[in-house]
Amino acid sequence: MADSGKLLGNLADRISYLIDLKGDSSWSDLDELQDHVQKLRDTQYEIAESELFEKINRVEDRVSFLEDRAAEQLKPSEIVNIVRSVHRFTLMDILENCYDSYTELGGDGDCSIDPAVVVARATISRRVKKKVYSHQIMVIGHEKGQGEEYRNGGCARPWGNEKALRYMRVAEVEGIPIHFYVFTPGAFPIEDSPGAAQQIARNLYAMAGLEVPMISFISEGGSGGAEAMGLSDIRLMASKGYYSVISPEGAAAIEGKIREGEKVPKDLIDHCAAQLKMTAQDNLLLGTIDRIVEEPPLGARREDYAFFRRLRYEMIRATDEVVLRTKSLRAFRAYALKGQAAEEHDIPEDFAMFIGWDLTDFEKERLLEIRSRKYRQMARGFYREGRKGLFSGIGRARELASKGYYELRYGLLRSHRRNVRKVLDEVSSEGSVLLRKVAKPVKAPYEFVFPKPERPPKVLRSEMGDDRSIFAEEWETYVSPLANEDRTVTCPNASRHGCLDLWAPDLYGEFSGVCPTCGHHFPLEYQWYLENLFDKGSVREFNRHLSAANPLGFEGLDSRLSRDFKRTGRRSSIITFDARVRGIKIIVAMFFSNYRGGTVGCAEGEKFVRACDKARITRRPLLSYIHTTGGIRIQEGTLGVVQMPKCTLVVREYIKSGGLYIVVYDNNSYAGPVASFLGCSPYQVGIRSSRIGFAGPRVIRETTGQDVPPDYHSAKNALRRGHIQGIWNRREFRKNLFDALIHMGGRNLYYK
Amino acid sequence: MDINLNDLLRSYRSHPYEDYHVETPHTGIISFLVEEGQAVKGPGGQWLHKPGTTLFTIDRERNQKRVTAGCNGVVADIKLSLEGKFVEAGEAVLSIRHRLDRDEIIDRILTEVLSIFSAPQRARYFLVPELVTRLEKKAGDEVLVEDDDEVLIMSLMKRDTMIRYQGVPGVIYKVYFNSGDLVEQGAPLLGICPTDNLEYVHKVIQRIRTEWKD
């Protein structure tokens, strides 16, 4: 009888799991089956044992049949339900079952700075020819918990991600590999210091350069939150996991233009889940992950020990692979990797060989090179390259020629000149002390007889440029077309500051869209900046031929792209160009709102990467001016999400090579780009009246259940939280940018 | 203090409303969006950031400005004859008849009968410890303060300044702040009721609490 209770309990769990998975208890009369099992549980002591077991067997057959049927064709939305099920394994289960032992760091259970993020120092062992070898590992990941409120459903708060970063650095110091486990529906979208977006950006920036092997395993990869622990050398994914730019519900609310508080239709959610290409198989095809870890047909649960065994094997194997790729012994590398490939289907008890996970300095360099190459390759070819054949060849030849020229000019000659000058300076300063003593008795009478001609004082670089205001030559300056309208405009702060109504030609002409009473900045089109910020005629666009496409075949995106092209004459939301600011040559990447709300997809990411590379090759400062960005383009799915690590990695390489990277936010800047290649800049500035953040007020309300004040994302609050380093007035943008280039770039502006 | 509380109460009973007159902010052509007798809502949300019901738009130089309700109530005395016409600045075009609730009436009566002691400047305020002890021991309205008594400590930039009460002697009827709160200049701190009026005030408040229906 005791067994029957256990069997019935097990059956009830399986039925409830099926209901969770289908999201509908009426599928194949699951509700009736559930009632039947409940009735059996209630009456199990009242009926004969043989009859009871017969009934149990019948139910079990039925449940097994339904499980097989459910597993035949799992819809993406059902996979999402599997991932969200309370029966699914969590990071704590992995720590218990895949690792030999572990010590949790930075808090335990609810006594942690953020219980949604678990960090543990663990040991994992392998057996090679009856000998056991142990490896030290840093395990970092999200813990969804089994319904505990303090786990916050695996949504890491900004300080949770900060904790993760702290221990990544510890792992780097200790030289041990990191295993990341991603179990998050997304980051907790609050701006409290260190800030959701800014911390993810810091994590990505640090991970791009961590000199230890990193492996990530994704079960639930919710956009930016996943990326905070997702940039790694090998990305594994659970076969019944999902990795997506946005939750299907969020995508459905946007696509269906559902108002806040209204219910999103289930069909629309299912449709969006399928369109987003979020399953493991989809991601493998898109190249955003490296391998899939097979799960049981309906997903792994907490007691699936065979799955944990496989996962443990895959994590060791992936770490080995990362380490082996850095080895210079090609033959050994090929042999070891070949041996592992053969083992792919069956998990052996013993490993063929022991591979140490320590890296030499040379191997560390190689590790970073491979990582860089891997991410640069990601999402390539998912945009349209308008230039083909001869033009493409000419373009490439020109790139090579300029690379050689700048390498010679700034790399070789300049660095030698600098080294020689440095030695001469040192020698002359030491020699001059000695010489002064000897020469002093002779020098004084000599100078008296032959006085030195007076030289004019040296002109500082800042004085060389054109210091005049852009309004000094008003007839030459570009004036916004908004100024052509004969009407008045009311400042939104009129009730608070008593601002007078402004005549549009005055406001958008002389005042440059700035309220003279309160200083509120009215939005201006991006062309205003192109014309007024840079020296006249210095803007030269490049890579215009790269255009956004519809890589996932998202329904309706093609027509939207062509509509935006007709409206703007552009084929992506980014413009990359060479320009000059008072004579200083810079490279600019400008995101603007008129094309898909300034969202970032594969084409935008690639253009940004190329601009960054150009700035690195030509040794020029890089300015990211964000007229507006609405985040990652959801219609490009994870191909859009991987732009975050990809661009951050390239930015890091640029900064490390001595580049000066400045980010200026205007109007609205939200989500993915701020949480990656923009937020990682050491110099970030907001234009007054701009808004900067991770998620908009609606998403915050829906996620956290709390409303945010109207000025929550204001530049002033971003400055107060330390997310940006200053606020600039639009009318002084040019002057401030020039000053910033001079002060932050210094003497070695082009060749630090 | 020469206030007849019964008259005051009678006046509120006969007209339990506050009429907010809405004027045109500037010249322009007006278009009404509400009707006589229509209920309107004032600003909402935790930070009063959601604007109230739009009452009318006024168009000047092709700038259509929306004028919204500043409080809850019912539209009254609307000058619909001005619809689509040019109006001067400051012209009263409608009223919002706001029905006062029980607490608002009590507050109003208290403001009229109490002697309000306001914050001399923006700072954090604390009651002096003796006063706190006395207030804890006795009911609030039994603690007497005389002119020139030390009643408050004003804390600003780590410097504490003793504030002396200046006004008619009476009992502390209402403390408008929590100890340690940052109080803006001119905001009420204490409501002092002259001893002679105390009984009346009690009675009226009691009657309002029991008889007034919102």
How would you characterize the overall build of this protein?
The complex is a heterodimer of chains A (752) and B (214). By secondary structure, chain A is α/β, with parallel strands linked by helices. Chain A folds into 4 domains: 2-73; 84-377, 2-enoyl-CoA Hydratase, Chain A, domain 1 (Alpha-Beta Complex), CATH 3.90.226; 481-523, no CATH class; 524-748, 2-enoyl-CoA Hydratase, Chain A, domain 1 (Alpha-Beta Complex). Chain A is built from 26 helices and 21 strands. In chain B, 22% of the residues lie in helices and 37% in strands. Chain B contains 4 helices and 16 strands.
Describe this protein with a few key phrases:
heterodimer, A: 752 residues, alpha/beta, 2-enoyl-CoA Hydratase, Chain A, domain 1, 8-stranded mixed β-sheet, 7-stranded mixed β-sheet, 16% strand, B: 214 residues, alpha+beta, OB fold (Dihydrolipoamide Acetyltransferase, E2P), 4-stranded antiparallel β-sheet, 4 helices, 16 strands, 22% helix, elongated
- Which CATH first-tier class of the largest domain in chain A would you pick? Alpha Beta
- For the CA atoms, what is the radius of gyration of chain B? 22 Å
In terms of quaternary structure, the protein is: heterodimer
Shape of chain A: globular
Low-confidence stretches of chain A: 458-475
Structural category of chain B: alpha+beta
Q: Which strand order does the major sheet of chain B show?
A: 1-8-6-3
- Name the structural class of chain A: alpha/beta
Number of H/I helices of chain A = 26
CATH architecture of the largest domain in chain B: Beta Barrel
